[in-house]
Design a protein that fits this description.
Elements (H helix, E strand, L loop, with lengths): L13 H18 L6 H8 L3 H7 L3 H13 L10 H9 L8 H16 L1 H29 L8 H4 L2 H11 L7 H16 L16
Helix pairs in contact: 1-2, 1-4, 1-6, 2-3, 4-7, 5-10, 6-7, 9-10
Length: 208
């Protein structure tokens, strides 16, 4: 009698994958990354731990996938000015000021500093694509002739999110659209734009 060929194990994909990612974020916000376990996520998702391990090698891969899916790509628009592009990307629905984004980052802040495996996965899965998109915003401004000749995009591109993270998680000031505008007008634009550029004025408070 010929033995039956082993059946392929079901993959975690589609709606079921999203259910697991949502469960991971729920557990992450409740207990933080350090105390999160695959068992806890499996229980919340009503799945077996083996099912999770068929898709993710461990909790670093699972959590970074969940964060990447929740935050999505940085959506950039060509509004015609650097100021307008930055405000469009960081303000409003889906922007940096979303309360869920603040909670998620707070839940992994310690792990970013102390867990090399998680930190590497977080930078690769969550941060890298956003920085690339943000750099594109500044490259577009440079192509328009907005930026000063000595503008250092490696420094300028991450300035806005870095300052917002500092205000939020170090100083305890929850970011809102008004804070984004203050940082753009008082820090980013004066550092980036040609001295005579009209958008360099720090007192503007409306989108371009």
């Amino acid at each position: 009698m010929t033995p039956e060929a082993p059946q392929p194990r079901p993959r975690v994909e589609g709606d079921r994958e999203q259910e697991v990612l949502d469960a991971a974020l729920d557990v992450l916000v409740e207990v933080g990354y350090d105390r999160l376990t695959m068992d806890a996520v499996a229980t919340r998702a009503r799945a077996s731990k083996a099912t999770l391990y068929r898709r993710w090698a461990g909790k670093a891969a699972l959590v970074t996938d969940a964060l990447a899916a929740a935050r999505g790509p940085l959506v950039t628009s060509d509004t015609g000015t650097l100021r307008g592009d930055l405000l469009a990307a960081f303000c409003g629905p889906g922007g940096f000021t979303e309360p869920s984004h603040v909670r998620h980052l707070a839940s992994v802040a310690t792990a970013i500093a102390t867990d090399p495996e998680f930190a590497a996965a977080f930078r690769e899965r969550v941060v890298a694509a956003k920085l690339l998109a943000l750099r594109g915003v500044f490259e577009r401004a440079a192509a328009r002739g907005e930026l000063r000749d000595d503008a250092d995009l490696d420094v300028l591109a991450p300035t806005l999110p870095a300052l917002l993270v500092h205000r939020c998680h170090v100083l305890g000031e929850l970011p809102d659209d008004a804070l984004v505008e203050r940082v753009v007008d008082q820090v980013v634009l004066p550092a980036a734009l040609r001295p005579a550029h009209p958008d360099r004025r720090p007192d503007r408070r409306t989108h371009s």
